[in-house]
Specification:
- 9% of the residues lie in helices and 45% in strands.
- It is globular.
- The relative contact order is 0.22.
- The longest helix is centred in the last third of the chain and has 10 residues, at 163-172.
- The chain has a domain at 23-67 and 113-208.
- The chain contains 2 helices and 15 strands.
- The chain has helices at residues 163-172, 188-196, and strands spanning 23-24, 44-48, 53-57, 61-73, 81-84, 87-90, 95-98, 100-102, 105-118, 123-128, 131-139, 142-151, 154-159, 183-184, 202-208.
- It is mainly β and 210 residues long.
């Protein structure tokens, strides 16, 4: 996922990694043939519950458009920024952004498009038990996974984030209990068990736009 530089700290999050990033040694689920495209049935646009972003699913990609007003108190902009009139200047790189004042609050409109996933050798799509798994290669033999599901017009995007899920993976794989590793080698059966027992529980939800 590409990261878009913004001046103020963004209050929205999507597909963000947890403090402990969970990775796998191969695309999951193992022994399931990759898809070359997203099925037509899930193509379309989906809007977030807070109306701040829209996901578009096409043949080979998922993109997201962020469109919202970001607000912050003028005294909280940070030492590296300088405010001159209606312009906020990043003194580190001389980047300038036009802003609007609402009392002592700075309002900055954010709008950009980000590619979440694009099918390739390093981004492998698999379908399993009614869900789509987006496998993104971070480095050789290190993959992060996002779970995507669609039911009754609601798109869910899930990641592994809770310590209980990490503990569950350690139990499933019989990893040494005192290890701090969050990198796992799962069989298809083990992955199925993890998904069945509420793996990928950190979810964002989006509603299909008509």
């Amino acid at each position: 996922m590409k990261k878009h530089p913004i001046v103020l700290s963004c209050i929205f999050a999507f597909f963000l990694y947890s403090c402990e990033t969970v990775t796998f040694n191969q695309p999951q689920p193992a022994d399931v043939k990759p898809l070359s495209a997203f099925p037509k049935r899930i193509h379309g646009k989906y809007i977030s519950n807070n109306q701040a972003s829209v996901i578009t699913i096409a043949d080979e990609s998922i993109t997201i458009v962020y469109d919202y007003d970001e607000k912050i108190h003028k005294d909280s902009i940070g030492a590296s920024y300088q405010l001159i009139g209606d312009t906020l200047i990043d003194t580190n790189n001389d980047c300038k952004k036009k802003i609007v004042f609402n009392g002592d609050t700075i309002v900055q409109h954010q709008n950009w498009t980000d590619t979440i996933f694009h099918i390739s050798q390093d981004n492998i799509l698999k379908r399993f038990k009614g869900y789509y798994f987006l496998n993104e290669q971070i480095q050789p033999n290190v993959w992060s996974i996002t779970k995507v599901g669609l039911k009754n017009g609601t798109l869910t995007v899930g990641r592994i984030s809770k310590e209980t899920e990490i503990a569950q993976l350690r139990e499933i794989t019989e990893t040494i209990t005192d290890t701090t590793s969050t990198h796992f080698n799962l069989s298809k059966r083990q992955f199925k068990s993890f998904v069945k027992h509420n793996g990928f529980s950190k979810e964002e939800t989006y509603t299909r736009m008509r």
